[in-house]
Design goal:
Elements lengths: L3 E13 L2 E7 L12 E6 L6 E4 L4 H7 L1 E7 L18 E8 L13 E6 L3 H13 L6 E9 L6 H9 L4 E9 L7 E2 L4 H11 L7 E6 L1 H13 L7 E5 L3
Parallel strand pairs: 7-8, 7-11, 8-9, 9-10, 11-12
Antiparallel strand pairs: 1-2, 1-6, 2-5, 3-4, 3-6
């Protein structure tokens, strides 16, 4: 069992109407993790804790000495977790890291395909940022699904990476998309995946895929990416609950 760290909440900011971004100070406390891993976290002294994926990369933490998390609020904007209603200066108990859904330490020069739904973007962001920090030589692609156009967390950052030529991004909205929406609409399909792989100019069997979202989302996508030819051994999954 890993030790429990007590960290100070440095900041909390709105990511979307449905999510908040929390940053906790590590200070000089040693903390080593792999991109994609999670911690179990709760209010200081409260025995009830919940798992949260770390949303930043190990390379980020070495520079900032802060951990970042994406936490959900419910549909009316009220806190879906007690952590979403905290203020800077609050104390958090953090245990971990844990989890096998990780970016490999030794990456082959394969195109990387990340597919996320909802708050499943959190560990994928960690992996994407780490891959880019390592100057991964092959294309890095993210397919990101949300229910509404206003529910894409980290969207400004992702679009900035696209403008810099460091990330290929495809967004799709499954429910409410306004008339100005220029992205995809509906659920991720086999046809959409095949078109994206063709756009990469690579064979599906050469890709490494990482999927994170609700249990149904991940099960459906794991089947689809296998059907288009990505080997099962290179399909990595994590099931998460919004």
């Amino acid at each position: 069992m890993s030790d429990v760290l007590t960290l100070t909440l440095r900041s909390i900011r709105v990511a979307t109407s449905a999510t908040r971004i929390l940053e906790a100070d590590l200070g000089n406390t040693p903390f080593h993790f792999r991109a994609g891993q999670a911690v179990v976290m709760g209010l200081h002294g409260d025995p009830v804790r919940q798992p949260y994926s770390i949303a930043c990369a190990p390379a980020d933490v070495r520079r900032t000495r802060r951990l970042e998390f994406l936490v959900a609020v419910n549909g009316s904007g009220r806190e879906g977790t007690p952590l979403a209603g905290l203020r800077p200066g609050a104390k958090l108990d953090v245990e971990g890291p844990s989890g096998s859904f990780v970016l490999p330490d030794a990456l082959d020069a394969r195109p990387l395909l990340f597919i996320g739904g909802g708050t499943g973007i959190a560990p994928l962001r960690s992996m994407i940022r780490e891959a880019l920090a390592r100057h991964h030589p092959a294309p890095v692609t993210l397919i990101y699904s949300a229910r509404r156009t206003a529910e894409f967390s980290y969207l400004d950052e992702l679009r900035r990476l696209v403008r810099q030529g460091r990330l290929q991004l495809l967004l799709t909205v499954t429910r409410l998309a306004g008339p100005r929406w220029r992205g995809e609409r509906g659920r991720i399909t086999r046809t959409l995946l095949e078109h994206r792989v063709q756009h990469l100019g690579a064979s599906a069997r050469d890709l490494e895929a990482f999927l994170c979202g609700s249990p149904t989302f991940v099960s459906d996508l794991a089947r689809l990416v296998s059907q288009i030819g990505i080997p099962v051994a290179r399909i990595h999954t994590e099931r998460w609950h919004d």
